Amino acid sequence: MAIEFVKTRVFPQGMAPADERQALELIEICGRTAYKSEDKITEDSARSFVLMLKKHGHLSVLEHSNAVLGIEENVCRSPASSIPPIETFRRSLVDRLEVRNGYHRFASIPSSTGFAMGGNYRSWIDTVGYLRDREPRYACFFQKHLNRFYPNLFEAPETSFEGPEYRVSLLREEEQMGILKQDPDSDLPVFVFKFICDRGITHEVVRHRVLSFTQESTRYVNYGNKGMTVILPEELEPFFDAQKGSFTARNPLVQMWIQRAETIFKWYQEDLKRGLKPQTARDILPNLLKSEIMVSGRWSGWKHFIALRDSKQAHPRIRFIAQEVRKYFESIDLF
User: Fold this and answer.
1) Which one of the record's GO molecular function terms can you name (predicted)?
2) What is the mean pLDDT of the chain?
């Protein structure tokens, strides 16, 4: 069928995984959403796909990730050690990264004198590069430990510096969540959602710039062969069976909308046939065109999203999304 109507939907993906293999698989899903090439995913395709993104500088897709390092004092540290106390190291890091304070989250680790430092892969890549010219021993320290946990994404440092030596661990999802529930300001976990909505709504979603986005691309997806899918307008909901994905009645209102969509899709196909590329032919596509968008963010960002969008003043479809996001956080006791 050339034209299909679908309802707005929300699919929670859970927390960005700490495990490298699982994290690469999630990034591949996000990246392939943009090109609608999910059919190319295989059991071992994630690593090469993500390394390709990194090589070409497509680092925005790597934002759908989270690496949280737990940094603690060495138990064997002697009073005469030249290694600074852990709190001194933390303050030093915060000072050096002050101009980049949106990149990382710092939090205390319960029952420990240490601290946690979290960031997505893009922020860690950028921060290591930032520190390399300003504080090489810190850059070496982080690169060494990131390489321990994420050897596919972070190479071992080429040079060795007399840098800080602390016990460094990788905080798993349940540990991140435990800290968040004890201290809501810690903001360590990253939560990922998939939205199926119209492009008009995605324009509103991406205004929440503390979140990260990878969206189905009308530049590269050719709908000429796939057919055109549009989001169901509210006024057609009484005539639509969501389970069957079809209309229960062909009243004049339904017929009008189908005719509109068929006309637009016909114009799109004609533009492709006369040689226009999808990135140009898309100019005729409607605001109601179905789009898939992967969205990642920390608790503070999602809390703000819900506060603004679960409102009577919000568009009905983005309010539905915000309510579904709220339900997910209620299910994990964050509301």
Assistant:
1) thymidylate synthase (FAD) activity
2) 93
Burial class (CB in 10 A: 0-12, 13-18, 19+), 249: exposed
Catalytic residue among 309, 317, 319, 326: 309
Alpha carbon distance 18, 259 (integer Å): 48
210: phi then psi, degrees, rounded to nearest 5? -75, -15
- Please name every residue paired with 297 in a beta bridge, in sequence order, or none if there are none: 191
CB neighbours of 66 closer than 8 A, spacing ≥ 6?
Answer: 15, 16, 17, 18, 23, 118, 119, 120, 176, 188, 189, 190
Buried b (16+ CB within 10 A) or exposed e, 297-334: bbbebbbebbeebbeeebeebbebbbebbbebbeeeeb
Helix (H, G, I), strand (E, B) or coil at 244: coil
Instruction: For residue 79, list its beta bridge partners.
Output: none
**What is the 3-state composition of the chain as percent helix, strand, coil, each rounded to the nearest 5?**
45, 20, 35
309 catalytic per annotation: yes
- One-letter-per-residue 3-state SS of 36-89: CCHHHCCCCCHHHHHHHHHHCCCHHHHHCCCEEEEEECCCCCCCCCCCCCHHHH
State yes or no: pLDDT of 77 exceeds 60.
no
Domains of the chain, residue spans: 3-16+189-331, 67-182
| In the predicted structure, residue 282 carries a pLDDT above the cut 80 | yes
C-beta neighbour count of 261 within 10 angstroms: 20
What does the block give as tokens for 37?
Answer: 């090439």
Query: Rounded to whole angstroms, how far apart are CA atoms 316 and 236?
Result: 14
pLDDT of residue 83: 59
pLDDT at 1 over 60: no
CB atoms < 10 A from the CB of 167, how many?
15
Say what the pTM is: 0.94
Asked if 6 and 245 touch (Cβ cutoff 8 Å), the reply is: yes
Q: What is the C-alpha to C-alpha distance for residues 286 and 223, in angstroms, rounded to an integer?
A: 13
Question: Does residue 45 have a pLDDT over 60?
Answer: yes
CATH code assigned to 3-16+189-331: 3.30.1360.170
